[in-house]
Amino acid sequence: MIYIFVLYGCVFMVLEDVVEKVLANDILFIDNVLKKKDEVREEAIRITRDILRYSTEAVRLIHLGKYEEAWRNISRAGELIVGLRELLADHPDLYYSGLIYNSLSEYAESYITYKLIVDKEMPSYKEIGVPYIPYLQGLGDVVGELRRHVLSLLGNGEIGEAMKYLEVMETIYLWLRKLNYPDPLAPGLRHKVDVARRLVDDTKVLLINTRNAYMVSKKIDEALKSKD
């Protein structure tokens, strides 16, 4: 019900009715905006799941030596990211959020891992095409994937090649360590740097022990051959 008072020739509407009128316009407008954003968000979640699936599968295939199949998965994930950017062009608050970053960091991890192991090169941040936070998160996780590669190389007796990848692991760690920022600015980065440091240290010990064992074994073989 609307109450109107006349005072000194002026008409005044009761405050609650003014509030009702304004909110009827504003809340309905915001409701429509949020409905649209929620629809976009649901579609974005579906796409990120596919990006995540292709990226994690690519890493698995890399370690199995199935490089062509791995790259196909990386390419599919990359195409989905292009579509995701277009979908969220008017929703930067969604694109630059943890909702999206997890899948993008997995993509960055798979892309960098492939380039380092297969192409023997380091892709640039711009080449990968993701925001810098998921890029850094993915780069941190690459250290763990390179350790897996080092273990595989050691299993094949390729100690020299394993040493090269240990150096790459350490180089990544040392550069990431320079970014000493709090979590609100670089979410999860400090933790990934700490993990990378432990992985580098553990891999160094493993390689030293493996190399020493190899040298001892080699000397024993040489000694036995000299007796013959």
TrEMBL record:
PANTHER family: TRANSLIN AND TRANSLIN ASSOCIATED PROTEIN X. CDD domains: TRAX. The keyword S-adenosyl-L-methionine does not apply. Mg(2+) binds at residues 109, 145. This is Translin. GO terms for molecular function: metal ion binding; sequence-specific DNA binding. It comes from the Archaea. The keyword Metal-binding applies. Keywords: Magnesium, Metal-binding. It comes from Staphylothermus hellenicus (strain DSM 12710 / JCM 10830 / BK20S6-10-b1 / P8). InterPro entries: Translin_fam, Translin_sf.
